[in-house]
Design brief:
The chain has 164 residues and is of the alpha+beta class. It is built from five helices and five strands, in the order ββαβββαααα. A hairpin with a 2-residue loop joins strand 1 and strand 2. Bound molecules: FE2/S2 (inorganic) cluster (FES) (2 copies).
C-alpha cells in the first residue's frame, strides 16, 4: 500500500536524464546524494539556513534541502559535479582555489553554485552584489572576504574566456 504513494519523476541532472521513483518525503538533497550518488551537494543544517546544499534548478539557485524530489519532475538540475568538463575545473572552482576562497571546503559547493548563478546573470558584480547574492550561504571558516574575491576573479576570467 505504502509503495503506491511513491512518485516517478523524470529529471535531467548534469545533462543526464534520470527516471526515478521517490517516496513523498525524499528531499532533493537526499535524492541527489543517495539515489544518484552525487555527494558534492553537501547537507548541513537541512533547515534551509546554511546553503551548503545549493544547486541550480532550471538555472536558479535553490537550497536542495528545502525541495522535495517529488516536486522536480521535468526539471533540469545542475550540481557541482556538472560544472567541470572532467578535465578542467569551471572558472569559479579555479578562482576559489587560486584566491583561497575555502578552508575546510564543506560550504564550498554551495557557494560555488550560488556564484555560478550570479555570474551567469552579472559577470562583473560589485562587492555588495556578491555579498547579497551569497547571503543565503554560511561559511564557518573563511570570513567571506576571500570568497568575495574569488567570485569577482571568476567573473573576470569568465568574461575573458580563460581561467588562467
Ligand atoms: S543543508 Fe540546505 S540550507 Fe543547510
Ligand atoms: S570553508 Fe569551512 S565552512 Fe566554509
Amino acid at each position: 500500500m505504502k509503495g503506491k504513494l511513491k512518485k516517478t519523476v523524470s529529471v535531467t541532472v548534469n545533462g543526464t536524464e534520470h527516471e526515478s521513483t521517490v517516496s513523498p518525503p525524499t528531499l532533493l538533497s537526499e535524492y541527489l546524494r543517495e539515489h544518484l550518488h552525487l555527494t558534492g551537494t553537501h547537507r548541513g543544517c537541512e533547515t534551509a539556513k546554511c546553503g551548503a546544499c545549493t544547486v541550480l534548478l532550471d538555472g536558479e539557485p535553490v537550497k536542495s534541502c528545502n525541495i522535495l524530489a517529488a516536486q522536480i519532475d521535468g526539471s533540469e538540475i545542475l550540481t557541482v559535479e556538472g560544472l567541470g568538463d572532467g578535465k578542467s575545473l569551471h572558472p569559479v572552482q579555479d578562482a576559489f582555489w587560486d584566491c583561497h576562497g575555502m578552508q575546510c571546503g564543506y560550504c564550498t559547493p554551495g557557494f560555488v553554485m550560488a556564484a555560478v548563478a550570479l555570474l551567469n546573470e552579472n559577470p562583473d558584480p560589485s562587492d555588495d552584489e556578491v555579498r547579497s547574492a551569497l547571503a543565503g550561504n554560511i561559511c564557518r571558516c573563511t570570513g567571506y572576504t576571500k570568497i568575495v574575491e574569488s567570485v569577482q576573479e571568476a567573473g573576470k576570467r569568465m568574461q575573458e574566456g580563460t581561467d588562467e
